From TrEMBL:
Protein task: May play a role in septum formation.
Pfam family for this entry, one: AAA_31
CDD domains per UniProt: ParAB_family
Name used for this protein in its record: Chromosome partitioning protein
Residue ranges constituting the AAA domain according to the UniProt record: 45-223
Protein family membership: Belongs to the ParA family.
Taxonomic superkingdom: Bacteria
């Protein structure tokens, strides 16, 4: 068989260049980007990934965006605030009961730095896992002083400087309870994944109302900075209709990149991996890399604006 050409740009026109070889080149570009590291933000960005509607790709987007930023040279921390622990599973972080986790951090038994574990998928990727103990945390938090501020206190600048991260992603449970409120109080930004399906905007109004309440009473710095469209199926008119509706309503807050519906993205957590580790040449992996690049570029533009302010 003719070996693949040295220039992938002409691959489609060369004899013997196969789809498998093309995917291998895409995988190499994801895992070993030629352009090097993405630009660092002017200040550390803490993003809460929230949507009380389940099945919208919230945890999937959290771990894959974090992994994409980490592969491109940005030190990233994922805080798994969902008692199901799916983000911990996808990053292959031990989250058996008794493991130092976000639960112990919230009740003040350990520091965030002590609970953070490095993922084997990247030296730049860290995770504070969630164990089953977190399931009862909301009840325990009710009687605690500053119950809405527990995560913010744990995410102090000193602790995050000690870990040295550029980005923090907080994966919320699919509800609007006390854990999600803690996440919003601790962050400056909210990232909302919205699936390109029927009833996509169902419950979104309630989420935005809660964000406004947090802004008004607990965290004036909070804003909805990013909306990511997920589960896009180009074969349906509905996906385009939802996409257009969201873009018309939220404007530039919506990332240009859309995450396609992908079997590889769905399979990856079952192997304790992000899609970037499971199948880096897949459409899903490439899409999350493109979305991460947009997020990083926005961080760089924030730097430029703050520098000229």
């Amino acid at each position: 068989m003719t070996p693949p050409p040295s220039d992938p740009a002409t691959a489609g026109h060369e004899l013997g260049w196969t789809p498998i070889a093309e995917e291998a080149v895409r995988a190499a570009s994801v895992l070993h980007p030629k352009e090097g590291a993405l630009p660092r933000p002017s200040r550390r960005r803490v993003l809460t990934v929230a949507n009380q509607k389940g099945g919208v790709g919230k945890t999937t987007s959290t771990v894959n965006l974090a992994a994409a930023l980490a592969v491109h040279g940005l030190k990233t921390l994922v805080i798994d605030l969902d008692p199901q622990g799916n983000a911990s599973t996808a990053l292959d972080i031990d989250h058996r009961s008794g493991t130092p986790s976000i639960y112990e951090v919230l009740i003040g038994e350990v520091s965030l730095a002590e609970a953070a574990a490095q993922s084997e998928q990247s030296s730049n990727l860290y995770c504070v896992p969630a164990t089953i103990d977190l399931a009862g945390a909301e009840i325990e938090l009710v009687s605690m002083a500053s119950r809405e501020m527990r995560l913010k206190e744990a995410l102090s600048s000193e602790i995050l400087d000690e870990i040295g991260v550029d980005y923090v992603f907080i994966d919320c449970p699919p509800s609007l309870g006390l854990l999600t409120v803690n996440a919003m109080v601790a962050a400056q930004e909210v990232l909302i994944p919205i699936q390109c399906e029927y009833y996509a905007l169902e419950g979104l109004g309630q989420l935005l109302s809660n964000i406004e309440l947090v802004q008004k009473h607990l965290n004036r710095e909070l804003s909805v900075s990013t909306i990511l469209l997920t589960m896009y199926d180009g074969r349906t008119k509905l996906a385009d209709q939802v996409t257009n509706e969201v873009r018309n309503h939220f404007g530039d807050t919506v990332l240009k990149t859309v995450i396609p519906r992908s079997v590889k993205v769905s399979e990856a957590p079952g192997y304790g991996q992000t899609v970037l580790a499971y199948d880096p040449g897949s459409r899903g992996a490439m899409s999350y890399v493109d979305a991460a690049k947009e997020i990083a570029q926005r961080g760089a533009e924030m730097k430029e604006r703050s520098g000229t302010a």
